[in-house]
Amino acid sequence: MAKFTVYFTSDTHGYLYNTNFVDTMERPMGVLSMRFPKDGNTLVIDGGDTLQGSPLTYFLHETREKGFQRMLPEAFNERGYDYVTLGNHDFNYGKAYLADYLKALSATCLCANVTDEDGMLPTVPYTVRTLENGTRLGLFGITTHWIRLWEKQENIRGVHITDPVEAARQAVEALRAEHVDKVIGVYHGGFEKDLQTEEVLSGTDENLACRICEELPVDLLLTGHQHIAIEGQMYHSTYVVQTPSNATKYVRVEMDEEGLFSSSFLVPDQKQTWTAYETEVRRHLDAWLDRPIGHLSDDIWPVERLDMALHGTKIADFFNRVQLWASQADVSLTMLPNECRGFARDVTVRDVVATYVYPNTLCVLRATGKDIREALERTATYFHVEPDGSVQISERFLRPKEEHYNYDYFAGVDYAFDLLRPEGERVIRLERDGKPLLDDEELTVCMCNYRATGAGEYPMWAKCVHARDILTEVSELILAYLSEHDRVDLPEPSCPVCFLGDRRL
Fold it and tell me: Do 84 and 48 touch, CB atoms closer than 8 A?
């Protein structure tokens, strides 16, 4: 059998430059630093989540009248991408924005479980590619169907997103009927089981890569979405890989004459050489990011995750303050992203968009005290107590991927946890205005649209009645709040009061 090579990226989230945007320091990252030596037996493929997730993508969207948004497809075109699939975050700025990106790509978008009623999205379910050496490859793409749950409905109106396994099954059957030599799947989704022990890691069907490998004759499965670094291994009869996020690594997969796969991670160069256009975009981006937008009474920087969860953080308090200001709700809850910049006293746009990195909007729900208590119990599972009495972060928030964003910080209620009590019974105090919050007491609760769907194992929120939606993105609300307040005074952080039995932490 003839050899071939695949270069694979995924979840780059618009990290084109060699920076994480927290500062201007050069780092070994960025699509512009990646190298894909190509010949007639090499493919370059991306697994989605390209259009949202970094200060650059926010800038490109906000300044689209300048035409800067063409930078993303041009970067992919210059690097010779052959195929891409769709990630859930690629829908965040709406179908028209996604369509413009796809139409500007030279690559073909493969996505077997996404169809579009009005034909705006130029996708195909699968394709056959004959390499220079005669090898016939069948390729298909699929994405997580949880987009239906997470995405704002106006962004996916007329878009049908079906079960990815069944769509993959139909694509594989069609490709096998074409007598291809190898089938390659590109899945914007991850693994629901531990790949060594096959222990089930999640009871949801958000990630279904294991099931695909178990049920379908796929030779190579390129995965994403979870941001887990999987350099390459066999799972059942399928060779699987997955990249970490933000263009910090990419994968080279090779098949030898025996039909066996091997792979390795590659790290982007730290140094970059930019075109005149890329230099112009970077100059405008840095100026936009570094312009002052407001003033705080103090710097608020993140500390260790466990410390913030136990003792609170002014960053989360500030987010909740903005959410309560925008929503006029009784209670607010927020989370912090895995990578959190924080705010200098003189706040810049860079501080805001690099600290609240999500394109979330807000929902106000009608919830009961019982709902709030159940949500706090879920939040309290973030903590694990070792036999020696030390408190650690629970493994379920660290594996199979880090999920610090599923720990919620609340404002508008006072609460206490006893971490020695069993999970589900750790909330030992829940009060509002100095009085116990009763289970049947109804309040309005503000949260991001992601959490309001029940995502992160908070099913109680999905059952609540929507009182109203605030469709302005939270980062824009933060900028508006800072613009309307000359100086924002920040008291000491509010936090849960945590106990280990009789001992207060």
Answer: yes
